[in-house]
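Hey,

Quick one before I head out. I ran the complex with 5-O-phosphono-beta-D-ribofuranosylamine overnight. Inputs first:
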Amino acid sequence: MHIPNAKVGILISGRGSNMKALIEASEHGVLNAEIVTVIADNTDAKGVEIAAQHGIPIHVLIPKEFSSKKDYEDYVVTLLKAHGAQWVALAGYMRLVGPPILEAFPNQIVNIHPSLLPKYKGLHAQKQALEAGESVIGCTVHFVNAQMDAGEIIMQTQIPVLPGESVEEVSARLLIEENRLYPRALQKVLEASCAH
Ligand code: GRF
């Protein structure tokens, strides 16, 4: 379905492979989105270089330099709005999103998490799944609400855990699926929003 490009801001904390997948999908026209800005919450985030290579406007913030989480998030909202963002995609953003961002983008924030939610919320989800003896693991794109990894599920992909596979090995295979799933799931959300 061809829909007008939605303006999307991406928040990252690290490597940025899911961010890259969203940027490339938008460049290739398979995601009807314009990535208007990338905001990183630390100076070591590798994804910043990737965003720069794609010519995306970048902001690197240091949350502890703000007087409170609210001040930090108010500034994130100011930046997102200044770039015209209508949607926010969290891509390896390692912070719980609070009221300033949630209220500025109601039902317009999405996240990707490396588990078959509602199972294994929080950190090290792949390790949690393996330690629980799961033979299948997966990833989930979901809407973001005030609880961690708890908003409405948009799409999931699952893969089998291979015999003897380490957490690192299965996580690497899962990341490939994450990078495929995120653009498709965001496109689904954007199409649904246009249908209303
Ligand atoms: C991914 O596993 C994602 O599901 C989780 O954090 C990781 C981020 O990886 N939320 P990347 O920075 O997108 O490469």
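Residues 14-19, 47, 91-92, 112-114, 139, 175, 178 surround 5-O-phosphono-beta-D-ribofuranosylamine (CB under 6 Å).

Talk tomorrow,
K.
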